[in-house]
Design a protein that fits this description.
This protein is an alpha+beta fold. The protein has helices spanning 3-15, 27-30, 36-41; strands at residues 23-25, 50-56, 59-71, 76-85, 90-98, 103-106.
Length: 107
């Protein structure tokens, strides 16, 4: 598995907003999804460098990731993450991915 993909999936698990029964949307599935947001963003990287989407029944969630250049003084990657869901909820924040521990923390 691609290291960036591993980071995105580990963020989703760590953040805990997605129900355990939700499944990841692959790019080809997103292209035929009923939600225009998913059709236009998952798998293409138009809005951000990396995008991952999940669905559970009629509900869906997306996370957009953009990595900042360089590392923090503690050897962590800096990431800007935006999230959107089917209910219109959205947020965006800075996070760090700690390379030594392979885990996320707020920036």
């Amino acid at each position: 598995m691609d290291p960036i993909d591993q980071r995105m999936q580990s963020f989703v698990r760590w953040y805990g907003e997605i129900p355990s029964g939700a499944t990841r949307l692959e790019a080809h599935e997103a292209q035929s999804h009923a939600a225009p947001w998913l059709r236009h963003h998952v798998g293409r990287g138009i809005v951000a460098g990396y995008v991952i989407g999940y669905q559970s029944g009629e509900q869906w969630w997306t996370f957009l990731f953009e990595r900042a250049p360089g590392l923090t003084t503690e050897g962590a990657e800096q990431w800007w993450v935006e999230a959107y869901d089917c209910n219109g909820k959205s947020w965006s924040r800075n996070y760090c991915y700690l390379l030594k521990d392979s885990r996320w923390r707020p920036a």
